[in-house]
Write a structure and sequence with these properties.
Length: about 130
Amino acid sequence: MKKVLQWIGGFFVVLIVIGLVAGDPDSGPNFSTDSGASEGTSSGSGDGQDYEISDLGVERGEFGNERITGILGNNSGHEVSYVQVEINLYDSEGVQTGTTMANTNNLEADGKWRFKAMPTSDFSKYKVTGVSGF
C-alpha cells in the first residue's frame, strides 16, 4: 500500500510541475506592436520578439461588417506551421464583450501575414492579447 501511495504522490508532483511550466506566461512566444496603433492596443514590448504586429486597424467589409486587421511579422528565425492572433473586444465602458482571433498555417521565417479577424460581438475598443505559434 505504501508503494501505491508513493506512486500516486509522485504522479501528482509531476502534474504540478507540468502545470507550473505550461502556465508560465513568459515561456510562450513574445510579440510586440507598432506604436501607431490608434484604434486598438496590444500587450508585448521590446526588441527580440518572436512576432511583431503592425498596421492595426478596423475596416468595414462589403456588407458593413467590421474586421480587425493588421500585419503579423514572424521574427522567430524559423517557419511556424501554425500561428494565431488573439483579440479581446470591449464596449465603450471597457467591459469585455467578446473575443476573436485569426490564424494561418506555414508562415515562413521573416515572413509577413496580413490578418483579418471577424468580431463575435459589438465592440468599441479591442486589444491584441496574445500571439501563439508552433
